């Protein structure tokens, strides 16, 4: 299961538990209240762990791209035929500004990162 799916499922479970906790508080059912409070704490910790791992992985990828010795914006012609460009430049990574990594790098245009000049 992917991280985003697991995170979504945990958020759904957390929402259900919170609703059930409110109902238990209205009934003044102490054992059920305790059960849902502990479950909410466990789910919240798991969500925090997943969010931290997600940001760690994104930051790791961002650092790897920034450590590449060469980067530049792609021309319209290069953008239209990316397959040809990737075949001609070994190790080329293209980052779009609307992806997570692109937003993290604060890119304005589609940019190519490579170990050598292209």
Q: Specify Rg, calculated over alpha carbons.
A: 23 Å
The helicity comes to 55-70%
Q: Report the biggest beta sheet as strand number plus sense, adding barrel if it closes.
A: 3 strands, antiparallel
Order of strands in the sheet with most strands: 1-3-2
**How many structural domains are formed by the residues?**
2
Overall SS class: mainly alpha
Task: Please outline the helices and strands.
Elements: H1 3-27, H2 30-66, E1 70-73, H3 76-80, H4 82-88, E2 93-95, H5 100-105, E3 111-114
Helix pairs in contact: 1-2
Attribute tags:
Ribosomal Protein S8, Chain: A, domain 1, YibL family ribosome-associated protein, 68% helix, 5 helices, 118 residues, three-stranded antiparallel β-sheet, 2 domains, single chain, coiled coil, DUF2810, mainly alpha
Give an overview of the whole structure.
The protein is mainly α. The chain folds into 2 domains: 1-67; 68-118, Ribosomal Protein S8, Chain: A, domain 1 (2-Layer Sandwich). It has helices spanning 3-27, 30-66, 76-80, 82-88, 100-105; strands spanning 70-73, 93-95, 111-114. α1 (3-27) packs antiparallel against α2. The model has no long low-confidence stretch (mean pLDDT 93).
Question: Briefly, what is this?
Answer:
By secondary structure, this protein is mainly alpha-helical. The chain has helices at 3-27, 30-66, 76-80, 82-88, 100-105, and strands at residues 70-73, 93-95, 111-114.
């Amino acid at each position: 299961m992917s991280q985003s799916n697991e995170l979504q499922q945990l958020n759904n479970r957390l929402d259900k538990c919170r609703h059930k906790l409110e109902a238990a508080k209205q009934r003044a059912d102490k054992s059920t209240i305790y059960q849902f409070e502990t479950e909410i704490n466990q789910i919240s910790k798991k969500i925090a762990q997943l969010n931290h791992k997600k940001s760690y992985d994104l930051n790791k990828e961002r650092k790897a791209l920034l450590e590449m010795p060469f980067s530049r914006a792609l021309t319209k012609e290069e953008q239209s035929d990316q397959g040809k460009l990737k075949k001609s430049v070994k190790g080329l990574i293209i980052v779009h500004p609307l992806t997570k990594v692109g937003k993290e790098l604060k890119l304005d245009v589609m940019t190519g990162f490579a170990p050598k000049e292209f």
